Amino acid sequence: MSAVIEIEGLHKAFHSVRHGRRVAVDGFDLLVEAGQIHGFLGPNGSGKTTTLRALLGLVGADGGRMSVLGVPSPRLLPQVAGRVGAIVESPQFFGNFTAYRTLRLLALAGGVPVSRVDEALEQVGLRDRGHERVKGYSLGMKQRLAVASALLKDPELLILDEPANGLDPAGIREMRDLMRSLAAAGVTVLVSSHILGEIQLICDHVTIISRGRRVAAGRVDEVLAGFDQHEVLVRVDEPERAAQLLREAGLPVTPQPDHLLVGQASDPTVVSRVLGEQGLWVRELTPLRPDLESVFLELTGEGGHPTLPRQVDGSSAYAPGAGDGVINLDAGVGGRRGGDE
Ligand SMILES: Nc1ncnc2c1ncn2[C@@H]1O[C@H](COP(=O)(O)OP(=O)(O)OP(=O)(O)O)[C@@H](O)[C@H]1O
């Protein structure tokens, strides 16, 4: 896999008379490889937009190394700009123009064949409505028009900053389908968001940023596996007796009001066997898998974990240093490893 975006050690601080110096991005790393739909996740104000703006030369970085499609960015970005589509700042469209006219103007200005206009409208599902005025468009349609404007040059890489922002569930689903179809067509997509369910549904890889630093990166399933406690939820008629039997079998049990949480149950049949052998039959046995939301909340310290962000990393290219509160997951290996907390 070739690197499409590489960021190493990006630093950016803003200075203002009122707030003084504010560090927005603090030694951040990002690796996006060809063919990925890569989710860039972080809470509000964690540095996502600043990172993307710095990558594209819309704001100057204070330090770090960045490249896009193999060339140093932003210095040599113009060399590959024709292969990159990006929507980092919401484009404003003239309400009285149709989508077709809008894109035609952009195509002419950008030296793109006008024949691409219909194709781009088709790609975002606006072909049938392309001759309507933009002011009559829904927010979702405007977002899709924005994506169409980035697709005009038929890019290899598409960078989208919060494309689902402000969309209703139907609009979010349209955006998701659009990204999937682009990825199927071979476009590498980097999409920032704080809508975690969306990212989990669309993206194969993820990088999580918190307070300007990367706290997790890798394949979504590997990042999630690093947080799998192998817990199962058990419902049974005699919970107290069941808890005692399970503890005697060496399994940690946390009683809840209407069920038991049993840890270290990577093989849930152990639980049913221990209980069944004593005549206790389970009514429900559900393995609990972490989702991106719970992992995100834990990593970004927004879920009641006041500890410093830890790092989960499925990418060998940026194996974090030892002894810095890091969890390092080798590609393809689940489970927690390395220095934890
Ligand atoms: N032009 C600017 N001047 C001063 N501070 C800024 C500027 N742009 C961003 N910041 C600050 O940098 C930090 C990171 O902001 P950034 O917009 O990159 O975060 P974000 O992750 O994109 O957030 P959101 O999801 O809310 O868009 C914030 O504290 C923000 O206030």
Task: Describe the fold and architecture.
A hairpin with a 2-residue loop joins β4 (63-68) and β5 (71-72). The protein is built from ten helices and 16 strands. Mean pLDDT is 84; it is low at 304-341. It is α/β, with parallel strands linked by helices. The chain has an eight-stranded mixed beta sheet, with helices on both faces. The protein starts with a strand and ends in a 13-residue tail after the last strand. The radius of gyration is 24 Å and the shape is elongated. Among the domains are: 3-96 and 150-224, P-loop containing nucleotide triphosphate hydrolases (Rossmann fold); 231-288, Alpha-Beta Plaits, CATH 3.30.70. The chain has helices spanning 48-55, 99-110, 115-123, 139-151, 169-184, 196-202, 220-225, 239-248, 269-276, 292-299; strands spanning 3-16, 20-33, 37-41, 63-68, 71-72, 84-87, 157-161, 188-193, 205-210, 213-219, 231-236, 253-256, 259-262, 282-288, 311-313, 326-328. Bound molecules: adenosine-5'-triphosphate. Residues 14, 16, 22, 24, 42, 44-50, 194 line the site of adenosine-5'-triphosphate.
Can you lay out the helices and strands and say which pair or pack?
Elements: E1 3-16, E2 20-33, E3 37-41, H1 48-55, E4 63-68, E5 71-72, E6 84-87, H2 99-110, H3 115-123, H4 139-151, E7 157-161, H5 169-184, E8 188-193, H6 196-202, E9 205-210, E10 213-219, H7 220-225, E11 231-236, H8 239-248, E12 253-256, E13 259-262, H9 269-276, E14 282-288, H10 292-299, E15 311-313, E16 326-328
Parallel strand pairs: 3-8, 3-9, 6-7, 7-8, 10-15, 15-16
Antiparallel strand pairs: 1-2, 1-4, 4-5, 9-10, 11-13, 11-14, 12-13
Helix pairs in contact: 2-3, 3-4, 4-5
The chain binds adenosine-5'-triphosphate.
Region (Disordered): 316-341
Protein name: ABC-2 type transport system ATP-binding protein
Family: Belongs to the ABC transporter superfamily.
